[in-house]
Design goal:
seven-stranded parallel beta sheet, 17 strands, four-stranded mixed beta sheet, globular
């Protein structure tokens, strides 16, 4: 089977391409190779074909789809961003790019899609109030955050809440621009599937980390930001009080989830005409502060500094139940937290052309997917 991997030269996409090649599939990589993402244009994995093109270029996408049996769509602009000036770049790269890809796939008769989605579609994760049961807290108020009140209260009685594991049937509640574009990608793909009879597995990545993460960019995930600081000999700066709960999943496990999802859409586990969402996480929550401390110790660097700073687009707790992926895809994460962080502490990071000045990318079309904001 020939698989097109969009964004396949980036962080997660390159691991996905390698995994599919190892499984015996043919792989064609479509990537814009933006210099702010790749200081040196990367060589594709041995055996893969590289098409250097923007996912918004309909002609290039149509040519890349010739002979293709399925698509793993990893191309996206990721992270929380810098400010609202980033909004057009996010919408263009993520939503327009996905729309172009889907339209050309329909023309080409390609009906199998694995979509890189994200945990950020949920907003805050699952919470339970002792009196009112499962509740959905609203966005946190700046006045509470300024006062160091980081935990969202029960929206009914104001009492403290207990966070839990969020399942795929939770309501979608995007809290930042990136999250809104990922919800839109899922809706576009679901509409495409209904109209053309396609099958879509949407993989909602949780906090992905591992070798080849980009360094020194505000568009990377928290693991990359901490690792970049340690590489510079600096202490990781932990926002809020470090008690934010996340699910950290190693990138090779994410690549394995893509391979399992591809098998599922081919086998009909995801029926034609439908989109099926799957959480991709370790299933074991850890706090951001804990992750920073473990990573710093493994790297032999300075201890983390808890700053009390915050970002309005962040959520407090979001951790995954990946039971559906286990039951339907036969996938579960294999890399433990301690082992994964120890390996990540020494893993190479990838530099963009502007890394020396720590300038964020302006409108990257197909960089790394899944390195989520915190």
């Amino acid at each position: 089977m020939l698989v097109l991997v969009t964004g396949g030269a980036g962080f997660i996409g390159s691991h996905v391409a390698e995994r599919l090649l190892a499984a015996g599939h043919g792989v064609r990589v479509l990537d814009a190779l933006r210099p702010e993402v790749h200081a040196v244009p990367p060589e594709p994995p041995a055996g893969a074909e590289l098409v250097a093109a923007d996912v918004r270029d309909a002609g290039a996408v149509a040519a890349a789809l010739v002979g293709v049996d399925a698509v793993c769509h990893q191309a996206a602009m990721v992270g929380l961003g810098v400010d609202l000036d980033d909004l057009p770049a996010y919408a263009g790269a993520n939503d327009l790019g996905t729309a172009v890809l889907l339209a050309q796939a329909a023309r080409a008769g390609v009906r199998r899609l694995v979509l890189a989605s994200s945990m950020v579609v949920y907003g805050e994760g699952r919470y339970r109030c002792a009196e009112h049961g499962d509740v959905a807290p609203g966005p946190r108020r700046p006045s509470d955050l300024d006062a160091g009140r980081f935990e969202p209260p029960c929206p009914v009685c104001g009492d403290p809440l207990t966070p839990g594991l969020v399942g795929e049937d939770a309501r979608l509640d995007p809290r930042n621009v990136y999250a809104a574009t990922k919800v839109a990608q899922e809706h576009l793909a679901a509409s495409w599937a209904r109209v053309c009879g396609g099958s879509v597995a949407a993989l909602r990545y949780h906090n992905v980390y591992g070798a080849r993460m980009p360094r020194d960019t505000p568009y990377a995930g928290v693991a990359s930001l901490f690792r970049s600081a340690l590489a510079r000999g600096e202490a990781p700066r932990v926002f809020e009080d470090g008690g934010q709960r996340r699910d950290f999943v190693e990138v090779r496990d994410v690549a394995a989830a893509n391979a399992a999802a591809l098998d599922a859409v081919v086998a009909g586990t995801v029926p034609p005409g439908t989109l099926r969402a799957y959480n991709v996480g370790s299933g074991t929550p850890h706090t951001v502060g804990e992750m920073a401390a473990v990573l710093a110790a493994a790297a032999g660097g300075p201890a983390p500094v808890v700053t009390g700073d915050y970002r309005l687009g962040d959520v407090r707790h979001v951790t995954a139940s990946s039971a559906r992926a286990r039951d339907e895809l036969g996938w579960s994460a294999r890399t433990g937290f301690a082992d994964g962080m120890a390996a990540f502490a020494a893993a190479p990071l990838r530099a963009g052309a502007n890394t020396a000045n720590q300038v964020p990318p302006a409108a990257a079309t197909s960089p790394d997917s899944g390195s989520e904001p915190t």
